[in-house]
Amino acid sequence: MKSWSGRRLGGLTPTQFIIVSYLVATAVSTVLLLLPLSLKPGVRLAPVDALFTAVSGISVTGLGVIGVADTFSVFGTFVLLGVMQFGGIGIMTLGTFLWLLLGRNITLSYRRLIMVDQNRYNLSGVVQLMRSILLLALSFEAAGTVVLGVYFRLAGYSDGWLQSFYYGLFHSVSAYTNAGFDLFGDSMLSFAEDYFVQSVTMVLLILGAIGFPVLLEVREYVRARKKGFRFSLYAKVTVTTFFLLVVAGAVGIWIVESDSAFAGMPWHQKLFFSLFNSVTTRSGGLATMDVNEFTGPTQMLMSILMFIGASPSSVGGGIRTTTFAVMILTLITFATGRSEVRVFRRSVGQEDVTKSFVVFTFAAMLVVTSVLLLDALEREHYALDKIIFEVCSAFGTSGLSTGITGDLSVAGKALLSVLMFIGRIGILSLLLMFRMKRRAEKYHFPREDLIIG
Q: Which residue windows are transmembrane per the record (predicted)?
């Protein structure tokens, strides 16, 4: 491993190389967004705002300090579109596509990078995995572009077919990658009563946030349904947790806001507002109503959902759904006196349990520290509840906002940028970046029990 990393990556581990690659991509994206060609005539973009937008795009968060439609030219929006695609699908997927397009062989070192980037445990089939991920992503985005493009034109949301498909393409990629950027100027508030656009958007958001491994297993199930295909434990836990969180979030929002933000609304409007806001907290960032209209309990619930985030190996951030699921299962196991974490007639490995609590603990410490720092920087201007919401949105790469992001200080924007970047690469990748090669202990000290709790 040492000789491979030194020969191929200049001494960097695969995790370090991937993180450095994302940093380089962020720098390049910043420069591209600052080009006069990327801006509308007469518009000036501060370097710090260009950097924030690039980080938000690479991390597919969508937190904005500028209005996309008011700031960028058509060229600039396509640059941002490319940044979202890069951040959503991932550096290794696009890199593999370009490598194959050039007719180059995929080396062992490159396969190891793919394995790390996609949280795989072995090298077999990683190149085919990249092909499948890219094909699925482009297929979903293309379908979304066609459906939304045609609908925007027929519903009168645009002046011509070209503009309709332009809007459809941008919105489809933004929704599938869960980036949350928009060309409408008000996120999706204009579609608050358009259930068709909301439904298509929610489907794209879910497809992006559910995770590539789940989508690939579903595809294999459809192909081999008559051959006794069995879903993996990962797929079962991921899908179950994902949709339980969506349902729980929607029910919670409906109950809390029924006599507040939703007062006087018909049941179907309450349903779509509740469901859409629950889905978008997975990592979407698109909004059909102003977050400030919600009461404090709902904003706190949404903050928790954003902290949990999307599924592993998806376009989303947060601690991930499987981390949350394993933690809950472990707590239930402990409370019931069992010694083994079980679910779906399978046992969860102790290493996975440990990883879950490590990820949660580090993430909680990171978010709490960030809230304290941002509050110290901005307490004269913004209440603590708004700061908590923005921090959780950045870490979960959701992009929902109470509207304060654009007015934060340079230090405040820098802090959120770091959180967005960490949310995209993941807590484990961040920790593994500093991890030395695992060594077997040469000796052991006598064990002594501690008093816990």
A: 17-39, 51-69, 75-102, 133-152, 195-216, 237-256, 315-336, 357-374, 414-434
Contact by Cβ (8 Å): 123, 111: yes
Give a yes or no: residue 448 inside a domain. no
Using one digit for the tens of pLDDT, what is the confidence trace for 275-301? 999 999 988 889 999 999 999 999 999
The pLDDT of residue 1: 36
Count of structural domains within the chain: 1
- pLDDT recorded at residue 19: 80
Contact yes or no for 402/302 (Cβ under 8 A): no
Q: Quick one: pLDDT at residue 6?
A: 38
Exposed/middle/buried for 184, CB within 10 Å: 0-12, 13-18, 19+? middle
8 A C-beta contact, residue 174 and residue 84: yes
Q: What share of the chain is helix, strand, coil (3-state, %, to 5)?
A: 65, 0, 30
- Please say whether the beta carbons of 395 and 317 come within 8 A: yes
* Positions in the chain short of pLDDT 50: 1-8
The domain containing residue 162 runs over which residues? 2-433
* CA separation for the pair 382, 385 (Å, rounded): 8
pLDDT of residue 407: 87
**Smallest Cα–Cα separation from 229: which of 242, 241, 239, 220?**
220
Q: What is the pLDDT of residue 243?
A: 95
Q: Terminus-to-terminus CA distance in the chain, angstroms? A: 41
pLDDT at 282: 85
* Whole-number Å distance between alpha carbons of 386 and 411: 17
Task: Work out the number of other CB atoms within 10 angstroms of the CB of residue 18.
Answer: 22
Rounded to two decimals, what is the model's pTM? 0.88
Structural domain includes residue 22: yes
Contacts of 12 (CB under 8 A, 6+ apart): 5, 20
Here the tokens at position 442 are: 């040469």
User: Over the Cα atoms of the chain, what is R_g?
Assistant: 22
Cβ neighbours of residue 269 closer than 8 Å, sequence gap 6 or more: 193, 262
Distance CA 437, CA 25 (A): 27
Taking CA 47 as the corner, what is the angle to CA 43 and CA 50, rounded to the nearest 5 degrees?
A: 75
Q: Is residue 443 part of a domain?
A: no
Candidates 280, 303, 103, 113; CA nearest to 203 is: 280
The verdict on residue 451 lying in a domain is: no
